[in-house]
Design goal:
single chain, 14% strand, three-stranded mixed sheet, alpha+beta
Length: 301
């Protein structure tokens, strides 16, 4: 019988089953893992609570391909990343992504709420307007989409406390988009583990579904997410938001994530410490904003 490991974190828990509790293949520590619980992406996936990297149910390490940002088993053959270009099947990638999100979760935004979220994004980024898709999903999730768009769930808006926390999350997605990671994920395909490429050949949207699931529930790996944290913290200060909101936002998302299916916002020990220290080092703007009441009113729409 496998050993059931219940991992307690601030009153919430997750259960992961392993034949043996072995050190993390990435960092070597014996910290108990969280179950990532995202079978749509990969079966029996777990995340190390010490370093934040992904591990298969048998203890094998997983990594993100630097070319296509797909999730692959360490050491597994991965030499079939498709050349850059549109996804197979043609059509606008953003339109197809929004159509799939609507079919899977339902869109539940209002023009007022979408304009409000876009106005926060504009303060952070200052570029052209961004399309906002609010998903009717109770789990907290956010993801940049190709073509200057961001998907957020109702669950994420319910968990956050103020505008500054949302600004930090939007700034993170902008940083990932600016780095090219979002474009690579949605424009490149790969032969993923466990026969995904064979399934894709019979389903023209399977590649896009996988890209959406990875972006919403798993993210871009420790290095990619840490860089996004760093750039978003700086963006908060430039926009006169309170940088300590970053840590508060991720802590709240982590607490909600522990009872849902995502793994993107499970904070590894070193990432949590780094966030707190970085926010402190940036200082506290004299006019730092939270805009809590404005946020609450907007989210009622």
């Amino acid at each position: 019988m496998p050993l059931s490991l219940r991992v307690l974190t601030r009153g919430r828990s997750r259960t992961a089953a392993f034949e043996h509790h072995v050190p993390c293949p990435h960092c070597g520590t014996s910290a108990a893992p969280w179950s990532a619980d995202v079978a749509d992406v990969e079966d029996e996936l777990s995340i190390c609570s010490s370093c934040g990297r992904l591990v298969a149910g048998d203890g094998a390490p997983f990594r993100f391909c630097p070319v296509c940002t797909d999730l692959v088993a360490e050491g597994a053959p991965h030499d079939r990343c498709l050349p850059a270009g549109p996804l197979p099947g043609g059509g606008g990638v953003l339109d197809r992504a929004l159509s799939l999100l609507d079919a899977r979760y339902g869109l539940r935004g209002s023009p007022t709420l979408e304009r409000y979220i876009d106005s926060i994004h504009a303060q952070i980024d200052g570029n052209e307007p961004t399309a906002i898709a609010v998903l009717d999903r109770s789990e907290p999730a956010i993801a940049a989409l190709p073509g200057r768009a961001v998907a957020v769930t109702r669950g994420l808006l319910d968990v956050l406390e103020d505008e500054a926390q949302l600004a930090f999350l939007l700034a993170r997605e902008e940083a990932l988009d600016r780095s090219g990671a979002v474009a690579r994920r949605f424009s490149l395909g790969s032969r993923a583990p466990r026969g995904w490429f064979a399934r894709w050949r019979h389903d023209p949207d399977a590649q896009l579904v996988r890209a959406l699931d990875l972006s919403l529930w798993i993210g871009f790996g420790v290095e990619g997410e840490r860089q996004a944290d760093s750039e978003a913290l700086s963006a908060l200060v430039r926009s006169d938001y309170d940088p300590t909101s970053a840590g508060h936002a991720l802590r709240r998302l982590e607490a909600a994530t522990l009872s849902s299916r995502g793994a993107r916002f499970l904070l590894a020990n070193d990432r949590a410490r780094w966030l707190e220290e970085s926010a402190e080092s940036l200082g506290h703007p004299r006019t730092a904003r939270l805009n809590r009441e404005v946020f609450r009113r907007a989210c009622r729409n």
